[in-house]
Design goal:
Layout lengths: L4 H15 L21 H16 L2 E5 L21 E5 L6 H13 L11 E9 L8 H6 L1 H4 L4 H12 L4 E3 L11 H5 L6
Parallel strand pairs: 2-4
Antiparallel strand pairs: 1-3, 2-3
Helix pairs in contact: 3-6
């Protein structure tokens, strides 16, 4: 966990309470023995967590723990069709380095090539139940090279979306997330 998680978690609690949404922490997931060869367990843990939650829920909203949710934020589940993936388009954001890295990783393993403007952010993403089949243990193991890196979550989800031509509904710009800097979180009053 990042050192400011206790501050962002407060915004998650308030958002979930306001919208009657269950909040679950990924810290509850343990890595099964089948995945002992993975070096970057952070990305793997997130994928296993999402898989676990899709077993229990029709849709999952995954939010990185370095994002604040504004108290005025609408219920994001009402903004995305129930069978679609909801996400921010990285090409329209500030993720140039990440989008280049995702493409380099996929190119290295001779996988799908994605245009810069079509990279999906995983900082805030809604995944429907139908996405669960792409998180099957066998598939995760088969795609170890794509997942087992620092950007494994964003790389694997983009790989699955583009390889399978999955429908993505882009979130309104007001849902664009911003990775927090030390300066942003030092002014705690603005988030209360």
């Amino acid at each position: 966990e990042r050192k400011w998680s206790h501050k962002t978690n407060k915004s998650f609690d308030l958002y979930c309470e306001k919208n009657d949404i269950n909040l679950v922490s990924e810290s509850e997931i343990e890595i099964p023995n089948d995945f002992k060869e993975f070096k970057n367990t952070n990305s793997l843990k997130k994928l296993l967590f999402i898989n676990n939650q899709l077993e229990k829920n029709k849709r999952v909203l995954y939010v990185d723990n370095d994002c604040f949710i504004s108290p005025n934020c609408d219920n994001i589940f009402n903004k995305i069709p129930k069978t679609a993936i909801g996400a921010n388009n990285v090409g329209n954001l500030y993720y140039d380095i990440e989008s280049q890295s995702v493409n380099l990783i996929l190119k290295e393993f001779k996988q799908v090539s994605i245009k810069r403007c079509n990279i999906i952010s995983t900082s805030v993403i809604i995944l429907p139940k139908s996405f669960k089949k792409h998180l099957d243990k066998k598939l995760l193991l088969e795609n170890k090279q794509i997942i087992d890196n620092e950007l494994g979550l964003i790389t694997y989800i983009n790989y699955v979306i583009h390889k399978n031509n999955l429908k993505v509904s882009f979130l309104d710009n007001k849902y664009n997330c911003k990775i927090l800097s030390k300066t942003d979180i030092s002014n705690e009053e603005s988030y209360q």
